[in-house]
What we know:
- The chain is α/β, with parallel strands linked by helices.
- It has 8 helices and 6 strands.
- Helices cover about 35% and strands about 15% of the residues.
- It is globular and about 65 Å long.
Amino acid sequence: ERGGAPPPGCIWTKQIARAVQWMRTFICRGRNAQRSAAGITRVWLLEAYLGRGPKMSITFDASPFGLGAVLQIDGRIVRYFANKLMPCDEARYGRVTGPCEGQQTWEALCILVALRCWSKFWQSSRIRLLVRGDNVAALQMLLSLKAKGTGPASIARELAIDLGDGTFRPDIIAHLPGVANVLADECSRKFDPAHQPWQIPRVLRQVQEDFPVIRDANCYIIK
């Protein structure tokens, strides 16, 4: 049974296991061109340096039952998703859908899902990317790639890998007051029993809906 100091020349592996796993994942992705070409190649264009890329914003929100996000490019809404929280989410993060206790985890997860769902718009090219939402803790997680709590901390490590694969990080992270976060909030409540029957907001009726991948074990980089 473990107790006290480790034997001479040894350390307790639990203290460094997560950090070593993350570094190993990051390095292996960079070495494997087939899995992560962005990990070994970076391209910087003049228009990126001059700030002439398109303006893109991702607005996100989460409810105890679902995730919602809206993508805008140069001020025009082009994509959205209204995604249900699933048993696989509950199992991975140790939270139950419905109660408010999991809210911080779901807000953080919504950022991860949105950035992965729309990675083709930002990961390999220079754009002016604004990420905004009404949850300060989730925005701080994206800014620092660190978070308190098992769920948000796990999501932060996934985000760090994603941003490491990309050519650029988001330019601006902004807080959006809850009363102004209407569309993303409405999308997140599509599967809320208290908001039935749910209707798609009028402004989104002609916008393409995206469907994020199922978040099973294969969806995550760090197992």
